[in-house]
Specification:
CATH class of the largest domain: Alpha Beta
Strand content: 15-25%
Number of strands: 17
CATH topology of the largest domain: Rossmann fold
Number of domains: 2
Strand order of the largest sheet: 5-6-4-1-7-8
Structural class: alpha/beta
Number of helices: 15
């Protein structure tokens, strides 16, 4: 995989460099609530601009249905990128389409060292098309805008999309700083792991994590399970889980995984107590919630588990304490509400206090770290791509990385 440093050494002054970034930031209206993904691509954009390239930044945002939708405009992300760049490269132009008149005019107007952002790539149906020809046609239009391609949208490399998979084949290409960093970190979790290796998995659905659990049962020393997915495990043990989130159809698979973990000597740790309530909390007003703390095998039939309890928090922290490597993906409770953020906060604090190489696996976990006020530098690495990280750990070939390796 050619790196951006190699590309810079060859010289990029005056060249139009297409940077596939991941600016898929959360928005409240037009207000960005977490700019982590924009900040993650800054080193690549700045290095290219400082070297005199004409930088064309492109990304998706949300899931528009192949047509323009103002709710998913990248305009706020473009404005924030300009604020963060500062200096000579701080003037960021914005094209109001992807490959149309505005995109062509905006790119043509770039001076050496200039930066432009194209409108949401998913406003064009060709970006996500299943049909190779349709996707390829859109990639051809994108390629006409540029001389060189730099892949730096790690959060999208598991997608076989035009700008991720097809476009690199049409231009000289290299991996940006973010992708090379992310891949380097993931190799530490798969190829040269320092032990004990502890994996903390949370989130809502166990079905989202089955493949990675299957792979980790042969690699990790301990698996700590939390979040909504934990209740399927608890149900598989024969416990009453009340009205907690449950994927009953996954119980046979979960049961087999627990048996295999025991056989393989992998310690699979489940909650021993939970915070439970009859009502899901109001995440907008964050009004105080009423809940009880109960043992994990004594959840009342009319109650829903919404966070791991204090005994579980202490248990999980102890399981992380002696680790040499920790990977965490998925919150352990409804962290968006202050009354149910304790479990997620405690596991984050345990990672901060650990001497291990700690990796926060993107998505909601990364958002939780920032929302709960942790210093990002206190962790070994915070990934920008939860889904991409999981698929890499599952051993899958990621289309966006394969395209850069050719």
């Amino acid at each position: 995989m050619k790196t951006i440093d190699e590309l810079l050494a060859e010289g990029v002054a005056g060249k139009r460099v297409f940077v596939r970034a991941d600016l898929n930031v959360p928005l409240d209206g037009t207000t960005i609530t977490d700019d982590g993904r924009i900040r993650a691509v800054l080193p690549t954009v700045k290095a290219l601009a400082d070297a005199g390239a004409r930088v064309i930044v492109a990304s998706h945002l949300g899931r528009p249905k192949g047509a323009p939708d103002p709710a998913f405009s990248l305009a706020p992300a473009a404005a924030r990128l300009g604020e963060l760049l500062e200096g000579p490269s701080g003037e960021v132009a914005f094209a109001t389409d992807t490959v149309g008149d505005s995109a062509r005019a905006t790119v043509d107007g770039l001076a050496d060292g200039g930066v432009a952002v194209l409108e949401n790539l998913r406003f064009n149906a060709g970006e996500t098309a299943k049909d190779d020809a349709e996707r390829g046609a859109f990639a051809d239009q994108l390629a006409a805008l540029a001389d060189v391609y730099v892949g730096d949208g790690f959060g999208a490399v598991h997608r076989k999309h035009a700008s991720v998979y097809d476009l690199p084949a049409r231009l000289p290409h290299a991996a940006g700083y973010l992708i090379t960093t992310e891949v380097g970190v993931l190799k530490k979790l798969t190829e040269d792991v320092k032990r004990p290796y502890v994996v903390v998995l949370g989130g809502a659905k166990v079905s989202d994590k089955l493949a990675v659990i299957d792979e980790l049962l042969g690699k990790a020393d301990r698996l700590l399970i939390g979040g909504g997915m934990a209740y399927t495990f608890l149900k598989a043990k024969g416990y009453e889980v009340g009205i907690s989130l449950l994927q009953e159809d996954q119980i046979p698979v979960v049961t087999e995984y627990m048996e295999r973990a025991e056989k393989n000597g992998v310690e699979l740790v489940l909650p021993v107590d939970v915070l439970a309530s009859t009502d899901f909390p109001d995440l907008k007003t964050k009004a105080p919630a009423e809940y009880i703390t109960v043992d994990a095998d004594k959840i009342p039939s009319d109650q829903e588990g919404l966070d791991i309890g204090p005994k579980t928090r202490e248990l999980y922290a102890s399981k992380v304490a002696d680790a040499e490597t920790v990977f965490w993906n998925g919150p352990l409770g409804v962290f968006e509400h202050p009354d149910y953020a304790g479990g997620t906060r405690e596991i984050a604090q345990a990672l901060v206090e650990s001497k291990a190489f700690t990796v926060v696996g993107g998505g909601d976990s990364a958002a939780a770290v920032r929302t709960l006020g942790f210093d990002e530098n206190a962790f070994g690495h915070i990934s920008t791509g939860g889904g991409a990280s999981l698929e890499y750990l599952e051993g899958k070939t990621l289309p966006g990385l394969a395209a850069l390796e050719d």
